[in-house]
Amino acid sequence: MKKMMQNLLALQKLQLETEPLTIEHESEILKLRQEVPAPVLAHMDRLIARGKKAVSAARHGVCSECHLRITSGTLASLAYANDIHLCDNCGRYLYLAEDEPVAAPVKESSRKPRRSMVAHAV
Question: Which of 59, 70, 90, 120 is most buried, judged by most C-beta within 10 A?
Fold first, then answer.
């Protein structure tokens, strides 16, 4: 999925350029669009048609486009590149910024669970 996010970022950059597209840029756009699944591409096209970026970096637990906090579950799953994720607030595709530290796994407690204090009837 990391490759797909790189393709989405490159595609976004090319499509949102203010300068007129050259033939080389148009061929690069076509090549990148072929590598992205149709549903992802359709969602991206809808966002870009509204003049919005389709891909956003997650920095310090916040979406860099809408500036709202990302849920902890989504943020934790961004560290693993198994799937693509959307911001729950703005609908942009999220990726973990390169300079963003990955959360360390939580250590299990070495304490034994306490017994229940419920009295048993005899």
Answer: 70
**Domain annotation covers residue 37:** yes
Q: Is residue 22 part of a domain?
A: yes
> What's the pTM?
0.74
What is the Cα–Cα distance from 122 to 117, expressed in whole angstroms?
A: 15
- Cα separation, 27 vs 10, in Å, equals 13
Range of the domain at 45: 2-96
> Has residue 83 been placed in a domain?
yes
User: What pLDDT digit, counting tens, does each position of 50-102 carry?
Assistant: 989 999 999 999 999 999 999 988 888 888 767 889 999 999 999 988 776 66
Give the CATH number of the domain where residue 10 resides.
1.10.287.1490
CA angle 30, 31, 33 (to 5 degrees): 65
